[in-house]
Amino acid sequence: MKVFQFFLFFCLILIGCNNRQDLSRHQVFKLNLNAGLSSLDPAFSKDQSTMWMCNQLYNGLLQLDDELNVIPSISKHYEISDDGLVYTFYLRDDVYFHDHPIFNSGKGRRVVADDFVYSFNRLIDNSIASTGAWLFNGRVRDSIPFEAKDDTTFIIHLKNPFRPLSSILTLQYCSVVPKEIVERYQKDFRKIAIGTGPFQLVKWQENNALVLKRNKNYFETDSAGNPLPYIDGVKVSFLNDRAVEFLQFLQGGLDFVSGIDKSFIDKVLNSKGELKDELKGQVKMIRGPYMNTEYLGFSMDKVKNQALKNKLVRQAINYAIDREKMILYLRNGIGIPAHYGIVPQGVNGFNENVKGYSYQPKLARQLLEKAGYPDGKGMKPIVLSSNPNYQDLTEFIAKSLEEIGIKVEIQLSPGSFLREAMAKNDVDFFRASWIGDYPDVENFLALFYGPNSAPPNYTRYHNQKYDSLYVKSMQSDNDKSSKLYLEMENIMMEDAPIVPLFYDELIRFIGPNISYMPSNAMNMLVLKSVKMN
Question: pTM here?
Answer without folding.
Answer: 0.90
